[in-house]
Specification:
The complex is a heterodimer of chains A (about 280) and B (about 250). Chain A is mostly helical. Chain A has 15 helices and no strands. With about 250 residues, chain B is α/β, with parallel strands linked by helices.
């Protein structure tokens, strides 16, 4: 079935390339890639190894990878079931709920960070009980970085998985159900394997978004080397203090990691996302 | 990364105003764009309003952020007429690049400890900043308030245990007003500006870490005449009185 779609989408031989589409497409490519090229051109390649081997840079990269991976895990555990609820169940207010849970997608991340502080900070709606009851104070900890990243990145996963669920053939689920499988069993043994490419694509987007998260992180978790200073905050700090070379070195590293993640999975999995 | 919102707003505003004032019938109709250290927010806003009143038809737009950020933006071509920095370093960045001329020290500022009202952690002095159990916010060492902070702790012979290093002094203050930290080091002027929301505690080592604030017109000012008029106004008795009220120390 997928092969059919691919064939239909491919360019048909003998058809002239419409300039009306090609021209803006070329402009779009230039618009998206030229800034990145400028970054690469201006990168201090000769001193790059020293800049990246610096303690702060190494710590920031390690912290970024660990936090983004943890955030992606949280998003998977919570987001896939949410996507299932949004795609496969029907209840009043479902559309409103979908709109609401995707708000972090369009919310300025700094606002997300403030909102997290007002909920989970020491004076926050819930945070005050965490603080006085359990002695847990979330802000300025590595856990806070993970929370901020998960908050911002989860909608990416939910949307991707929901799309995959809507695109997958529900008759397989129905068939399994008629054979006596429980709803949970159907989900685990039939639905999930069918939408695996979509889940993976969603995870990749989610991870990439978490890796680049800045606004919510610096607001909710602050910035401290080795504890809460991720790559984007380290880049910001370096840039602010006039250390352009350091900032560029970190930027090009973050760019390389992101591109590697996207490329390694794009061909195999992203094409499997039903539109 | 991207320019911070206040800078962006100032830029957009100045562009919008430039576009509108094409007639230029009143001299000074072109806005005066002032890039100033975050700690000058309240005092300069007040001075700006006074200036506009004293020069009918003029308008002053501000971009308040960390001095180091603003210096980078001006280097990158941001159309500022006046630059006010909270320490010599960002100003030197501009003068070395030939982007600002003849900076003058126009006020001084000193640090104070800021605590949430009530001071539940019972902070008394700088030595409390070494208590690991306290949540502490400081300025990052790369920005002027952070440099002053380092000087103060060096003078006290203490190594603080901060939980976060913020990019400008207002971000540090925000962590105190939100009650997320037990103590922070900010400028005395910030404590005064946030009176009622934070409590200030003076400490003796602050004398060893007084910041000189520098003021200059920029080399490529779109409105050079307006810029120097504003600088003169800040240095005048009226301007200095506003700064004095805000808690700044006079230069002499």
């Amino acid at each position: 079935m997928r092969r059919d779609t691919a064939a239909r989408r491919g360019p048909r031989p003998g058809c002239g390339l419409p300039l009306m589409l090609l021209l803006p497409a070329a402009l779009a490519v230039a618009f998206l890639l030229l800034p990145l090229m400028a970054l690469i051109v201006r990168t201090p390649w000769t001193t790059l190894p020293q800049l990246l081997l610096a303690e702060d840079a190494r710590q920031a990269l390690q912290l970024s990878l660990v936090c983004a991976a943890s955030a992606t895990l949280i998003c998977l555990v919570l987001g896939v079931p949410l996507a299932w609820v949004l795609a496969r169940t029907d209840f009043p207010g479902r559309r409103l709920l979908r709109a609401l849970v995707t708000v972090p997608l369009v919310l300025p991340p700094v606002v997300g960070g403030v909102a997290l502080l007002l909920l989970l900070g020491r004076r926050g709606l819930l945070g005050r009980y965490l603080d006085t009851g359990l002695g847990i104070s979330l802000p300025f900890t590595t856990a806070a970085v993970v929370v901020a990243e998960a908050f911002v990145a989860m909608p990416f996963l939910v949307i991707a998985v929901e799309g995959a669920l809507r695109g997958s053939d529900q008759r397989y689920d129905d068939a399994a159900a008629t054979l006596g499988a429980s709803k949970l069993m159907v989900f685990r043994r039939v639905t999930l394997p069918l939408i695996a490419p979509g889940v993976l694509a969603g995870s990749v987007l989610c991870f990439a978004r978490a890796l680049g998260e800045f606004g919510a992180t610096i607001t909710f978790a602050g910035s401290f080397p080795g504890r809460t200073q991720t790559m984007p905050t380290a880049i910001y700090t370096a840039l602010e203090s006039g250390d352009t070379d350091g900032a560029l070195a970190l930027s090009v590293l973050l760019l390389a990691v992101s591109v590697a993640v996207l490329i390694s999975l794009r061909d195999r999995w992203l094409s499997g996302v039903p539109s | 990364m991207t320019p911070r919102p206040p800078a962006l707003a100032a830029l957009t505003l100045s562009l919008a105003l430039t576009a509108c004032g094409s007639g230029a019938e009143i001299s000074g109709a072109e806005p005066i764009t002032v890039f100033a250290a975050a700690s000058l927010t309240e005092a300069f806003s007040r001075i700006g309003a006074d200036f506009e009143e004293a020069h009918p038809g003029s308008s002053v737009v501000f971009s308040f952020a960390a001095s180091s950020t603003l210096a980078q933006q001006i280097l990158a071509g941001a159309p500022a007429d006046v630059f006010a920095a909270a320490s010599p370093v960002p100003m030197t960045t501009l003068t070395r690049a030939g982007r600002a001329t003849a900076p003058t020290v126009f006020v001084r500022n000193r640090l104070q400890i800021a605590v949430p009202p009530g001071n539940h952690a019972q902070v008394r002095g700088l030595s409390d900043f070494t208590r690991p159990s306290l949540k502490i916010a400081l300025c990052a060492p790369q920005v002027p308030c952070g440099a002053a902070t380092e000087k103060a702790f060096n003078a006290a012979g203490l190594v603080p245990e901060p939980d976060t290093l913020e990019q400008d002094v207002k971000a540090v203050l925000a962590k105190v007003t939100l009650g997320e930290v037990d103590a922070a080091l900010v400028y005395r002027t910030d404590v005064l500006a946030a009176a009622g929301v934070v409590d200030g505690i003076a400490f003796p080592e602050a004398d060893k870490a007084v910041n000189d604030y520098f003021l200059a017109t920029t080399a490529e000012a779109p409105n050079a005449a307006g810029g120097s008029a504003f600088v003169d106004y800040v240095l005048s008795a009226r301007g200095q009185r506003v700064l004095d009220d805000a808690g700044f120390d006079p230069v002499t």
